Amino acid sequence: MQISRKTRPSIPAIGEGKRGVDGHIGYLLRQAHSAHRIRMEKALAETGMTLPQFSVLTMIAAYPGASGAALAQLSLLTPQTMSVIVANLEKARLIERRAHPEHGRIQEVLMTALGNDVLDRCRQAVAPVEAALLARMTPEEEAVVRRWLVNIAVDVGQEIR
Is 129 part of a structural domain of the chain? Predict the structure, then answer.
């Protein structure tokens, strides 16, 4: 007696089936995020920095003197992860910490000159990846996508307060 094998459904390629325009919007957002993360990690590999480290350096440059807790929130990382990243960046002399002038227990995080140089190299490495995200869009379409992404985050932020 011969045992029949059940045929398994074929997995569609990215862009096809539920991995394409007919897929669930949340899945498509996650799929795009994963693809972008992979490209960013490849681009950053030559700099020796990780994507979370790049994100943290970017936020420190944008908000000098922010605390570790604020940086965790800005970088979408847990406080525990932020603590490890800040310690490693400080050890590499890319950032420095100093006591807040009014709240001694709070540590302000600041970029060093070396940190600014590394961040500049990282930005140059990821510029083509960022440009590729927008390559197929008009400026008007880009504006719509940016508003949509921000609105999602704002709405969720209001829900969890």
Answer: yes
Q: What is the pLDDT of residues 62-99, one digit of tens each?
A: 999 999 999 999 988 999 999 999 999 999 999 999 88
Helix axes 113-134, 25-45, angle to 10 degrees: 130
Residue 155 inside a domain? The answer is: no
Asked if residue 89 is part of any domain, the answer here is yes
Which residues, at least 6 apart from 32, have a Cβ–Cβ distance to it below 8 Å? Answer: none
Q: pLDDT of 107-120, one tens digit each?
A: 899 999 999 999 99
Residue 140 pLDDT > 60: yes
Query: How many Å apart are CA 124 and CA 120, to the nearest integer?
Result: 6
Cβ proximity of 68 and 109 under 8 Å:
yes
Taking Cα atoms as reference points, which of 100, 102, 113, 92 lies closest to residue 67? 100
Do 50 and 122 touch, CB atoms closer than 8 A? no
Domain of residue 103, residue span: 21-133
